[in-house]
Amino acid sequence: MANRFTCHKISDGKAQATAIISKDRVMFYQVRPEDGMMEEKNHYLEGRIIAKQVLLFPGGKGSSVVQQDGLYHLDRFHNMPAALIVQDPDPVLVAGAIIMKIPMVDRLSQEFYETVRDGDMLLVNADEGYVEIL
Length: 134
Fold this sequence. Notes:
Strand order of the largest sheet: 1-10-9-3-6-7-8-2
Structural class: alpha/beta
Radius of gyration: 13 Å
Low-confidence stretches: none
Number of strands: 10
Oligomer: single chain
């Protein structure tokens, strides 16, 4: 049985993929474009692949130049996250998601964050304003 949670759309689209949850903010420039692996030392996701997964994270970090460049290179190698669920969106992340056409949502309930687990299959439907844990 699926659990459905309402959300706020930031960037259009929908995607279904496994969840990967970060406790740390993400600088996409620190993600290796060739395979989508987080290379930042001592990061919660260090050594893990974020490509083609639904990335849940607190927010971005770093300058607009490094964030956009990191997203651009991930896109170039077809290793973008499938969707982004962010707790604290900033203009750089929002612009990147819109430009790169990555579904991005926020404003999910605390219940969602207490329920979702790393590796859960998620359906992010930004267009209709919900996330389902399948």
